[in-house]
Amino acid sequence: MPKYDYSCDKCGVFEVTQPITESPLEQCPYCGGNVKRLISSNVNIIFKGSGFYKTEYRSQDYIKKLKEEDKAKAPAKEKNKNQQSSTTAS
């Protein structure tokens, strides 16, 4: 759950953990005074793993199929490269 910063007219600044779906506080939970939710620079995002590319978390089956497709395409690329070099040499 995210933490939100609030400013109370009487108490000052405090932090509250609330669900995202919950409405902002209107009264201070400590003194009952008026509060405003502050724009917080506290971003609690945790990135797990060594990187964040979409290909890094693919299943082993997907990776295996991808490698097989690359192997199948390799001879066709080589053939096209040889054809282009022979036509430019003429």
Description:
The protein is α+β, with helices and mostly antiparallel strands and 90 residues long. The protein has a domain at 3-37. The chain has one helix and three strands; from the N terminus they run βββα. The model has no long low-confidence stretch (mean pLDDT 79).
Structural features:
alpha+beta; 90 residues; 1 helix; 3 strands
Strand order of the largest sheet: 2-1-3
Question: Can you count the beta strands?
Answer: 3
Through-space gap between termini: 69 Å
Q: What best-fitting shape do the alpha-carbon axes yield?
A: rod-shaped
Number of helix segments?
A: 1
Content-based structural category? alpha+beta
Determine the strand fraction and express it as a percent band: 15-25%
Sheet of most strands: 3 strands, antiparallel
Helix-strand blueprint:
Blueprint: E1 3-8, E2 12-17, E3 35-37, H1 60-89
Antiparallel strand pairs: 1-2, 1-3
Summarize, please:
The chain has one helix and three strands; from the N terminus they run E-E-E-H.
